[in-house]
Amino acid sequence: MISDVARLNLAVLGVGIVTVGAVFALATPFQDGEYALSPYCTQAQADLHIIGKAAYAADVETGAVLYAKNASAQLPLASITKIMTVISASEILPKESVVVVTKEALEPEGDSGLYENERWRVPDLVDFTLMASLNDGARALALSSAALYGKGDDWFVEVMNMKARTIGLSQTYFLNDTGLDISSSTAGAYGSAHDVAEMFRYAITSTPIDFQGSTEPARTFVSLNDKEHRALNTSESGVFLDNAIVSKTGFTDLAGGNLAVVFEPFIGKPVVAVVLGSTREGRDADMKILAQGAKKELRRIMLCNRLYGD
Prior knowledge:
This protein is α+β, with helices and mostly antiparallel strands. Helix content is 39%, strand content 20%. The protein has helices at 4-27, 39-42, 81-90, 122-132, 135-147, 153-166, 193-206, 237-240, 282-308; strands at 54-59, 65-69, 75-76, 98-100, 119-121, 173-174, 189-191, 218-222, 228-232, 246-252, 256-266, 269-278. The chain is globular, with a radius of gyration of 26 Å. The N and C termini lie far apart (56 Å).
């Protein structure tokens, strides 16, 4: 006969075994395929309320898509074009080069205060051009690059198109070096949100350009002629996003409001985010929504990959 004390001890032992088993199961729910995947790790991509015609966000290192809306649609790029202008010029002009602002460089729409025959260090003019979206700055870089080969602006635009093809931008082509509309029906450049993201990825991984100026809120530039120029950044969110690396706005009648940014929502994990076809006022609001959505999706991917060992 089992005594009452023995029965009590066995009951306690049984409860202990069940409890330990339950704790072990809870501690290892993702091993050997014994448990269903967490709903958090299998949920569909969030539906973000973005007014832009197209949007795209991706992990720069892995290429994982964090959000996509009409990402392959070919749309006017406006001044996002200037990123390719700067990339192409940086691969032609030695870093110690001096760019002279010619009368021809001052012809594009939008007077930014540059002077004819003003002389600039290339890095300073690049920063000024990207921060304040200078049409004359972009044209000066293009003309100076072409002049090294005795060529003109048309030649430089073809260099931009060759670079686009080389890095696989199948939806992208350039008709000028500024992105300004050519007419009421023809933009200065076209591309997709996906292509813009790839262009920015190339810019930060495969060029010697710093891009620091593109994310500063303001700076006073001084040319080699001792002319001072006060610049304000054309983007709000491109300046204040977490650890912004490069940012560029765009706006024309045909394009509407465009914005592309590379930022680090988590240190060492750069994300590229692109909005095309929004409005001048709406592009920053769209970018903030896109950046928040991309950060959440990247966090989900990082966590779930860790859980499942992918």
